[in-house]
Amino acid sequence: MQSAESGLLILSSHQPLQRRVLKIKRILSYSRDTKVSHKVVLAYFRKHYWLIANGFCPYCHNHYRNFGILSNHIMRSHTLEVAEDYFKLREKIKEGGGK
Hints:
By secondary structure, this protein is mostly helical. Helices cover 78% and strands 0% of the residues.
């Protein structure tokens, strides 16, 4: 019984992170119109992790009370910055893979 409960706790602790990665994928794809590489999503997430995890916009540093509101703000207000980040990270990943 106890092991089943601890298994649920482990699963539930990973769910918010997975949801956030998916929302970041949506933010990036919204600014691009094409399929977004999962490697680019993870690189973007790592680059801005501290700010995003604490509810801050990585571009204007405003604080938002939950991740849904933050992701909507980023999609609406910072589309160009996200697109720039996307292309820079994609180029970095391509260069790293080519060596």
